[in-house]
Description:
By secondary structure, the chain is mainly α. The protein has 13 helices and four strands. Strands 1-2 form a two-stranded antiparallel sheet. Strands 3-4 form a two-stranded antiparallel ribbon. The relative contact order is 0.12.
Amino acid sequence: MTRKSLQTPPDPIASWSVRMIKSILQQYSLDNAAWHYEHGLMVFAIGEAGRAFCESQWVDFTQSWVDHFIAEDGSIRTYRVDEFNLDQVNPGRLLFHAFKTTGFDRYRKALDLIYSQLQNQPRTHSGGFWHKKIYPYQMWLDGMYMAGPFYAEYALTFNHPSAFDDITRQILLFAHHTSDSKTGLFYHGWDESRTQKWADPMTGCSASFWGRAIGWYLMALVDVLDYLPPNHPDHAAVVDILQRLSAALIRYQDANTGLWYQVVDKAGRPGNYGESSVSAMLAYGFAKGVRKGWLGSEILLSAQRAYRGLLENQIKVDSQGMLTLQNTCGVGGLGGSPYRDGSYEYYIGEKIIPNDFKGVGSFVLAALEMETTGVVIASSE
Protein backbone atom coordinates (compact mmCIF):
# COMPACT_ATOMS: atom_id res chain seq x y z
CA MET A 1 0.00 0.00 0.00
CA THR A 2 1.45 3.35 -1.01
CA ARG A 3 0.56 6.89 -0.10
CA LYS A 4 -1.16 8.77 -2.89
CA SER A 5 0.42 11.94 -4.24
CA LEU A 6 -2.36 14.48 -4.02
CA GLN A 7 -2.09 17.61 -6.16
CA THR A 8 -4.88 19.49 -4.41
CA PRO A 9 -6.37 19.22 -0.96
CA PRO A 10 -9.30 16.82 -0.75
CA ASP A 11 -12.85 17.99 -0.32
CA PRO A 12 -12.80 19.83 3.02
CA ILE A 13 -16.09 18.24 3.98
CA ALA A 14 -14.51 14.78 3.67
CA SER A 15 -10.98 15.59 4.81
CA TRP A 16 -10.70 15.61 8.56
CA SER A 17 -7.00 16.49 8.50
CA VAL A 18 -7.77 19.65 6.53
CA ARG A 19 -10.65 20.60 8.79
CA MET A 20 -8.62 20.06 11.94
CA ILE A 21 -5.67 22.09 10.64
CA LYS A 22 -7.94 24.97 9.67
CA SER A 23 -9.58 24.85 13.09
CA ILE A 24 -6.26 24.99 14.92
CA LEU A 25 -4.69 27.68 12.74
CA GLN A 26 -7.65 29.95 13.46
CA GLN A 27 -6.53 29.96 17.09
CA TYR A 28 -2.74 29.53 16.91
CA SER A 29 -0.36 32.46 16.94
CA LEU A 30 3.42 32.55 16.73
CA ASP A 31 3.26 34.89 19.70
CA ASN A 32 2.22 31.87 21.76
CA ALA A 33 4.57 29.39 20.08
CA ALA A 34 6.90 27.36 22.29
CA TRP A 35 9.96 25.23 21.55
CA HIS A 36 8.17 22.31 23.12
CA TYR A 37 7.40 18.79 22.01
CA GLU A 38 3.63 19.23 21.81
CA HIS A 39 3.97 22.32 19.61
CA GLY A 40 6.60 20.45 17.62
CA LEU A 41 4.28 17.50 16.98
CA MET A 42 1.38 19.72 15.93
CA VAL A 43 3.48 21.86 13.58
CA PHE A 44 5.22 18.78 12.16
CA ALA A 45 1.82 17.26 11.34
CA ILE A 46 0.74 20.46 9.58
CA GLY A 47 3.93 20.41 7.51
CA GLU A 48 3.39 16.77 6.55
CA ALA A 49 -0.15 17.57 5.42
CA GLY A 50 1.04 20.66 3.54
CA ARG A 51 3.52 18.61 1.53
CA ALA A 52 1.08 15.76 0.92
CA PHE A 53 -1.67 18.09 -0.29
CA CYS A 54 0.57 20.71 -1.94
CA GLU A 55 -0.79 23.36 0.43
CA SER A 56 1.98 25.95 0.35
CA GLN A 57 0.42 28.06 3.10
CA TRP A 58 0.86 25.22 5.58
CA VAL A 59 4.44 24.58 4.52
CA ASP A 60 5.09 28.32 4.82
CA PHE A 61 3.57 28.27 8.29
CA THR A 62 6.01 25.59 9.43
CA GLN A 63 8.89 27.60 7.99
CA SER A 64 7.72 30.71 9.84
CA TRP A 65 7.48 28.66 13.02
CA VAL A 66 11.08 27.48 12.62
CA ASP A 67 12.31 31.00 11.89
CA HIS A 68 10.57 32.25 15.01
CA PHE A 69 13.13 30.26 17.02
CA ILE A 70 16.32 29.92 14.97
CA ALA A 71 18.78 32.82 15.10
CA GLU A 72 21.34 33.60 12.40
CA ASP A 73 24.10 31.95 14.46
CA GLY A 74 22.10 28.72 14.77
CA SER A 75 21.11 29.23 18.39
CA ILE A 76 17.56 28.27 19.35
CA ARG A 77 15.48 30.65 21.41
CA THR A 78 14.56 29.18 24.83
CA TYR A 79 16.39 25.89 24.13
CA ARG A 80 19.20 24.86 26.50
CA VAL A 81 21.46 21.92 25.79
CA ASP A 82 22.58 21.70 29.41
CA GLU A 83 19.08 20.78 30.57
CA PHE A 84 19.50 17.46 28.73
CA ASN A 85 15.75 17.26 28.24
CA LEU A 86 14.71 14.79 25.54
CA ASP A 87 11.37 16.58 25.17
CA GLN A 88 13.22 19.54 23.67
CA VAL A 89 14.78 17.45 20.91
CA ASN A 90 11.48 16.70 19.21
CA PRO A 91 10.81 20.14 17.63
CA GLY A 92 14.18 19.82 15.91
CA ARG A 93 12.57 17.51 13.35
CA LEU A 94 11.18 20.62 11.68
CA LEU A 95 14.69 21.85 10.92
CA PHE A 96 15.47 19.10 8.43
CA HIS A 97 12.99 20.32 5.83
CA ALA A 98 14.11 23.91 6.38
CA PHE A 99 17.74 22.95 5.85
CA LYS A 100 17.12 20.67 2.86
CA THR A 101 15.01 23.24 1.01
CA THR A 102 17.15 26.32 1.72
CA GLY A 103 20.64 25.07 2.51
CA PHE A 104 20.95 27.86 5.07
CA ASP A 105 23.83 27.32 7.46
CA ARG A 106 21.87 28.47 10.49
CA TYR A 107 19.60 25.43 10.24
CA ARG A 108 22.56 23.06 10.02
CA LYS A 109 24.10 24.72 13.07
CA ALA A 110 20.84 24.32 14.98
CA LEU A 111 20.63 20.66 13.96
CA ASP A 112 24.20 20.12 15.10
CA LEU A 113 23.43 21.83 18.40
CA ILE A 114 20.57 19.44 19.15
CA TYR A 115 22.65 16.47 18.00
CA SER A 116 25.35 17.54 20.47
CA GLN A 117 22.81 17.18 23.26
CA LEU A 118 22.23 13.54 22.34
CA GLN A 119 25.95 12.86 22.18
CA ASN A 120 26.32 14.12 25.74
CA GLN A 121 22.95 13.04 27.18
CA PRO A 122 23.38 11.35 30.59
CA ARG A 123 22.80 7.61 30.35
CA THR A 124 22.01 4.54 32.39
CA HIS A 125 24.81 2.05 32.85
CA SER A 126 23.42 0.04 29.93
CA GLY A 127 23.52 3.09 27.65
CA GLY A 128 19.91 4.28 27.79
CA PHE A 129 19.18 7.99 27.71
CA TRP A 130 17.97 9.57 30.93
CA HIS A 131 14.66 11.21 30.10
CA LYS A 132 15.90 14.48 31.57
CA LYS A 133 18.88 15.55 33.64
CA ILE A 134 16.48 16.15 36.52
CA TYR A 135 15.29 12.51 36.31
CA PRO A 136 18.52 10.55 36.84
CA TYR A 137 18.70 6.89 35.76
CA GLN A 138 15.12 7.03 34.44
CA MET A 139 14.00 5.99 30.97
CA TRP A 140 10.46 6.98 29.96
CA LEU A 141 8.75 5.55 26.88
CA ASP A 142 7.90 9.10 25.78
CA GLY A 143 11.59 9.76 25.25
CA MET A 144 11.87 7.32 22.37
CA TYR A 145 9.62 9.52 20.24
CA MET A 146 11.09 12.74 21.59
CA ALA A 147 14.61 11.85 20.45
CA GLY A 148 14.48 8.79 18.18
CA PRO A 149 13.08 10.14 14.89
CA PHE A 150 15.30 13.24 15.05
CA TYR A 151 18.35 11.12 15.83
CA ALA A 152 17.59 8.73 12.96
CA GLU A 153 17.00 11.44 10.37
CA TYR A 154 20.18 13.21 11.43
CA ALA A 155 22.14 9.97 11.12
CA LEU A 156 20.87 9.39 7.59
CA THR A 157 21.04 13.01 6.41
CA PHE A 158 24.58 13.64 7.60
CA ASN A 159 25.99 10.14 7.15
CA HIS A 160 26.55 9.01 10.72
CA PRO A 161 25.84 5.27 10.33
CA SER A 162 27.19 4.40 13.78
CA ALA A 163 24.41 6.48 15.32
CA PHE A 164 21.90 3.86 14.20
CA ASP A 165 23.49 1.41 16.64
CA ASP A 166 22.73 3.84 19.45
CA ILE A 167 19.19 4.46 18.23
CA THR A 168 18.32 0.79 18.09
CA ARG A 169 19.99 0.31 21.49
CA GLN A 170 17.43 2.72 22.95
CA ILE A 171 14.54 0.84 21.32
CA LEU A 172 15.80 -2.54 22.49
CA LEU A 173 16.48 -1.32 26.03
CA PHE A 174 12.87 -0.18 26.38
CA ALA A 175 11.66 -3.53 25.08
CA HIS A 176 13.93 -5.35 27.52
CA HIS A 177 13.20 -3.30 30.63
CA THR A 178 9.59 -2.10 30.31
CA SER A 179 7.73 -4.86 28.45
CA ASP A 180 5.40 -7.10 30.43
CA SER A 181 5.46 -10.78 29.50
CA LYS A 182 1.84 -11.39 30.50
CA THR A 183 0.14 -8.61 28.55
CA GLY A 184 2.74 -7.69 25.94
CA LEU A 185 2.26 -4.05 26.96
CA PHE A 186 5.00 -1.62 28.03
CA TYR A 187 5.16 0.22 31.34
CA HIS A 188 5.55 4.00 31.23
CA GLY A 189 8.94 4.23 32.92
CA TRP A 190 11.94 2.34 34.23
CA ASP A 191 14.26 3.45 37.04
CA GLU A 192 17.63 1.74 36.83
CA SER A 193 18.48 2.84 40.37
CA ARG A 194 15.20 1.53 41.87
CA THR A 195 15.17 4.56 44.16
CA GLN A 196 11.96 6.24 42.97
CA LYS A 197 8.79 5.60 44.95
CA TRP A 198 7.01 4.85 41.67
CA ALA A 199 9.51 2.11 40.74
CA ASP A 200 8.94 -1.56 41.52
CA PRO A 201 11.85 -2.56 43.79
CA MET A 202 12.50 -5.71 41.77
CA THR A 203 11.98 -4.58 38.16
CA GLY A 204 12.38 -0.81 38.39
CA CYS A 205 9.21 -0.38 36.31
CA SER A 206 6.37 2.00 37.02
CA ALA A 207 3.00 0.54 37.93
CA SER A 208 0.72 1.30 34.97
CA PHE A 209 0.34 0.88 31.23
CA TRP A 210 -0.32 4.50 30.34
CA GLY A 211 -1.81 4.72 26.86
CA ARG A 212 -0.03 7.75 25.47
CA ALA A 213 3.40 6.55 26.61
CA ILE A 214 2.86 3.38 24.59
CA GLY A 215 1.55 5.49 21.72
CA TRP A 216 4.71 7.62 21.73
CA TYR A 217 6.86 4.51 21.60
CA LEU A 218 4.94 2.91 18.76
CA MET A 219 5.04 6.13 16.72
CA ALA A 220 8.78 6.25 17.34
CA LEU A 221 9.16 2.76 15.90
CA VAL A 222 7.43 3.55 12.61
CA ASP A 223 9.16 6.91 12.25
CA VAL A 224 12.65 5.58 13.06
CA LEU A 225 12.12 2.76 10.57
CA ASP A 226 11.77 5.40 7.85
CA TYR A 227 15.51 6.02 8.21
CA LEU A 228 16.97 2.83 9.67
CA PRO A 229 18.81 0.99 6.86
CA PRO A 230 17.09 -2.32 6.04
CA ASN A 231 20.45 -4.08 6.28
CA HIS A 232 21.15 -2.80 9.78
CA PRO A 233 21.67 -5.78 12.12
CA ASP A 234 18.86 -4.61 14.43
CA HIS A 235 16.31 -3.80 11.72
CA ALA A 236 14.52 -7.13 12.02
CA ALA A 237 14.43 -6.85 15.82
CA VAL A 238 12.82 -3.41 15.65
CA VAL A 239 10.17 -4.66 13.21
CA ASP A 240 9.55 -7.65 15.48
CA ILE A 241 8.99 -5.35 18.47
CA LEU A 242 6.55 -3.30 16.39
CA GLN A 243 4.65 -6.42 15.36
CA ARG A 244 4.47 -7.93 18.83
CA LEU A 245 3.45 -4.68 20.51
CA SER A 246 0.78 -4.05 17.86
CA ALA A 247 -0.67 -7.52 18.37
CA ALA A 248 -0.79 -6.96 22.13
CA LEU A 249 -2.48 -3.58 21.80
CA ILE A 250 -5.23 -4.88 19.54
CA ARG A 251 -6.35 -7.15 22.37
CA TYR A 252 -7.09 -4.05 24.46
CA GLN A 253 -8.93 -2.02 21.80
CA ASP A 254 -12.47 -1.30 22.94
CA ALA A 255 -14.92 -3.44 20.99
CA ASN A 256 -17.64 -0.79 20.94
CA THR A 257 -15.77 2.46 20.31
CA GLY A 258 -12.53 1.28 18.69
CA LEU A 259 -10.58 3.46 21.16
CA TRP A 260 -7.91 2.67 23.72
CA TYR A 261 -8.21 3.64 27.35
CA GLN A 262 -6.16 6.14 29.32
CA VAL A 263 -4.87 3.16 31.33
CA VAL A 264 -4.83 0.57 28.61
CA ASP A 265 -5.56 -2.64 30.51
CA LYS A 266 -8.16 -1.27 32.94
CA ALA A 267 -11.33 -1.02 30.84
CA GLY A 268 -14.40 -0.77 33.02
CA ARG A 269 -12.67 0.60 36.09
CA PRO A 270 -14.25 3.76 37.50
CA GLY A 271 -12.78 6.90 36.00
CA ASN A 272 -11.04 5.29 33.04
CA TYR A 273 -11.97 6.67 29.62
CA GLY A 274 -11.31 6.32 25.92
CA GLU A 275 -8.37 8.68 25.41
CA SER A 276 -7.93 10.55 22.14
CA SER A 277 -4.17 10.89 21.83
CA VAL A 278 -3.30 7.23 22.32
CA SER A 279 -6.10 6.21 19.94
CA ALA A 280 -4.84 8.61 17.26
CA MET A 281 -1.21 7.60 17.79
CA LEU A 282 -1.99 3.92 17.39
CA ALA A 283 -4.24 4.55 14.38
CA TYR A 284 -1.35 6.42 12.78
CA GLY A 285 1.28 3.87 13.72
CA PHE A 286 -0.78 0.90 12.60
CA ALA A 287 -1.81 2.47 9.29
CA LYS A 288 1.72 3.60 8.50
CA GLY A 289 3.13 0.23 9.52
CA VAL A 290 0.80 -1.50 7.07
CA ARG A 291 1.54 1.00 4.30
CA LYS A 292 5.28 0.50 4.70
CA GLY A 293 5.02 -3.29 4.87
CA TRP A 294 6.17 -3.74 8.47
CA LEU A 295 2.72 -4.84 9.68
CA GLY A 296 0.27 -7.28 8.15
CA SER A 297 -2.70 -5.92 6.23
CA GLU A 298 -5.10 -7.20 8.89
CA ILE A 299 -3.77 -4.52 11.27
CA LEU A 300 -5.33 -1.85 9.06
CA LEU A 301 -8.77 -2.91 10.28
CA SER A 302 -7.76 -1.95 13.80
CA ALA A 303 -6.47 1.42 12.58
CA GLN A 304 -9.74 2.06 10.74
CA ARG A 305 -11.79 1.16 13.81
CA ALA A 306 -9.73 3.54 15.95
CA TYR A 307 -10.02 6.35 13.42
CA ARG A 308 -13.76 5.86 13.09
CA GLY A 309 -14.00 5.79 16.88
CA LEU A 310 -12.25 9.15 17.07
CA LEU A 311 -14.61 10.68 14.53
CA GLU A 312 -17.74 9.30 16.14
CA ASN A 313 -16.85 9.77 19.80
CA GLN A 314 -14.16 12.40 20.18
CA ILE A 315 -14.69 15.04 17.48
CA LYS A 316 -17.11 17.88 18.17
CA VAL A 317 -18.10 20.20 15.30
CA ASP A 318 -19.42 23.67 16.13
CA SER A 319 -21.89 25.77 14.14
CA GLN A 320 -19.02 27.30 12.11
CA GLY A 321 -17.65 23.89 11.16
CA MET A 322 -14.65 24.17 13.47
CA LEU A 323 -13.44 21.01 15.19
CA THR A 324 -12.63 20.22 18.79
CA LEU A 325 -10.85 17.00 19.73
CA GLN A 326 -12.11 15.91 23.12
CA ASN A 327 -10.79 13.64 25.88
CA THR A 328 -7.05 14.17 25.60
CA CYS A 329 -5.07 13.84 28.81
CA GLY A 330 -3.15 17.06 29.32
CA VAL A 331 0.02 15.58 30.80
CA GLY A 332 1.42 12.40 32.29
CA GLY A 333 4.71 11.96 34.08
CA LEU A 334 6.53 10.29 36.94
CA GLY A 335 8.05 11.78 40.08
CA GLY A 336 8.56 15.52 40.26
CA SER A 337 6.64 17.90 42.51
CA PRO A 338 3.85 17.36 43.29
CA TYR A 339 4.91 13.73 43.17
CA ARG A 340 3.41 11.56 40.44
CA ASP A 341 3.38 7.96 41.62
CA GLY A 342 2.41 6.24 38.36
CA SER A 343 -0.71 4.68 39.88
CA TYR A 344 -4.02 4.14 38.15
CA GLU A 345 -5.51 6.92 40.27
CA TYR A 346 -2.79 9.32 39.18
CA TYR A 347 -3.35 8.83 35.45
CA ILE A 348 -7.14 9.08 35.54
CA GLY A 349 -6.87 12.16 37.74
CA GLU A 350 -4.85 14.24 35.29
CA LYS A 351 -6.73 17.09 33.65
CA ILE A 352 -8.41 16.50 30.27
CA ILE A 353 -7.68 19.24 27.72
CA PRO A 354 -9.78 19.90 24.57
CA ASN A 355 -7.70 20.39 21.41
CA ASP A 356 -4.52 19.56 23.28
CA PHE A 357 -1.71 19.65 20.70
CA LYS A 358 -0.57 16.12 21.55
CA GLY A 359 -3.97 14.87 20.55
CA VAL A 360 -4.46 17.25 17.62
CA GLY A 361 -1.05 16.54 16.09
CA SER A 362 -1.55 12.79 16.38
CA PHE A 363 -5.06 13.07 14.94
CA VAL A 364 -3.81 14.96 11.88
CA LEU A 365 -1.12 12.33 11.28
CA ALA A 366 -3.69 9.54 11.61
CA ALA A 367 -6.14 11.32 9.30
CA LEU A 368 -3.38 11.95 6.79
CA GLU A 369 -2.51 8.25 6.71
CA MET A 370 -6.14 7.35 6.13
CA GLU A 371 -6.76 9.99 3.48
CA THR A 372 -3.58 9.52 1.47
CA THR A 373 -3.83 5.75 1.36
CA GLY A 374 -7.33 6.00 -0.06
CA VAL A 375 -9.26 5.20 3.09
CA VAL A 376 -12.20 7.59 3.37
CA ILE A 377 -14.26 7.40 6.53
CA ALA A 378 -17.23 9.66 7.06
CA SER A 379 -18.78 10.45 10.40
CA SER A 380 -22.18 11.59 11.48
CA GLU A 381 -22.10 15.07 13.03
